Amino acid sequence: MTKTFLITDFKATPDTQKVQTKKVQACIDACHLAGGGEVVIPAGTFIIGSIRLYSNMTLRLKSGAVLKGSKNLEDYKDFHIPTTIKYLYDPEYIKDWNLPPYYFYAMICAFQEENIAIIGEAGSIIDGQDVFDPNGEEKFRGPMGMILSQVNNVSLEGYTFENSSNWSHTLDGCEKIRIENVTIKAGHDGFNLHHSTNIRISNCRLETGDDCFAGYDVHNLEVSHCYLNTACNGMRISGTDLSFKHCIFNGPGHYPHLSEDTYYTHAIFKYYSVLADTILEDSEKIRFDNCVIHSADKLFSYSFGDKELHQVNQPLRELTMENMKISGIRKTSLFKGNGEKVTLTLKNVQLSFDEEEPIFLEIDDSVTLILENVFFETATKIRSLNQEMTLLGETTMVIENR
User: What's the predicted TM-score (pTM) here?
Assistant: First the structure.
């Protein structure tokens, strides 16, 4: 029988402006000492700084429960989490992005644990309160929503995460992740998955101010039946066996990109492969299947070797979109291997280009472009080398790389 630990039994008080971190942590520590169980957050609003979870533990938010991040930065700590994200230690990135030495801190933390779940009943909320940190990333970002680093077997389900002061969910170096029916509103990135593997995400709704999905060296990811809305990129990602099925990508963002105060969606797919980290494999088997995409500046953003785009470590080899309906793409998408061969396949795709720029897609001679049963609703230009072709109606063709 699962042991249950109620935070109010440890004198945590709801609906007060007093910070409840110590009392909530006392409940968590008691659960840990008992070998695991459920830590229960009842209905009511509880203000916390940083709490730390342990193995074989479920944090359960009952219906009407709200965890709010403290507005006081002194209520947060980094627990000295040994992150797998190595650019956090790189002097160039630290300087360019203004990363503080305590950058890896959050409301909810766990590291090098196993069997951790965060489960929310209907109406449960985690609210980061968009805490401002003048010494944080970009000189305004505060703590992460949650950091689960190097955790084996993670389950996230049912809650809404609002107003994260930085990334909502940091899941780095984790193995076996299941995320279902989670809603994200505003804040920054939705799910960051650096160096994680065996991930299933379904029936989630992401309305983010930054990338919906982010991470490099991600392996065996399946995202299905999710709604993705962003004022940045649908994804900034790399890895192997990455699949997006039956998803809706819909711009512009409902919430602003906090760095730029803009709402438009930048790109649906943007490649991500930083030099200041260990990435052993090329990226391949990235697929979109039975998705609907509407309203973005670009469909793709890939130009291998571009340091500014952080696309300089390992190259992309394969990207496929199949059984897709795409509309409202406005600007030129770049898909360039720059000497590294890559295949882009569009199969059974209906595409409408609402041009603000004359060229829909620009590729180079490293790219094999396969178009199979692609229906261009409007006259659409593709540039290959120094040649341009205009496509209209149903098209099947192959442009080989050299």
Answer: 0.96
